[in-house]
Amino acid sequence: MKPAPKLVAALVAIAVSAYLGLDQLPSGLVDANQEISAAYRAQANDVDVSGSGTVTRVLADDNDGSRHQRFILDVQAERTILVAHNIDLAPRLDGLKVGDTVEFKGVYEWNDRGGVVHWTHHDPQNRRSGGWLKYRGQTYR
Question: 28 partner at 20 to 30 Å CA-CA among 8, 22, 36, 136?
Fold first, then answer.
């Protein structure tokens, strides 16, 4: 049985805090991108994650089935991730280019290349909390 990624991140934070001799966890000690690193190590799927990264590559849209804008983010969590943003349900990030910063909330799925974050949009059937992307001061849902 694999440990839950958020549990792993919390345990790391506690261990670091104990090592530093702190009575409590400083706010922000666990970077949100550590969730992705923990999920990757656990080969986890269907994990809610949030964080930010720098665009390292803008890929062609995936037009099979629902259309997705695709790009690679360096999340500084020992890896990069693919973001697959459904542009049939949410607006495209126009003008996206290498070097831009994008914040995200979505669902992580493991693969051996670092993983994929999808569900970066609202859920039209309200079955799960919606995700989003933030780019140049605008939120895309």
Answer: 136
> How do residues 66-93 score in pLDDT, each as one tens digit?
999 999 999 986 789 999 999 999 999 9
pTM for this model (two decimals): 0.77
Structure tokens at 65: 């089935």
The burial of 95, by beta-carbon neighbours within 10 Å (0-12 exposed, 13-18 middle, 19 or more buried), is given as exposed
Q: Are 73 and 81 in contact (CB under 8 A)?
A: yes
CB 103 within 8 A of CB 51: yes
Please, are residues 54 and 83 in contact by the beta-carbon 8 Å criterion?
no
Domains and CATH numbers, the chain: 45-140 (2.40.50.140)
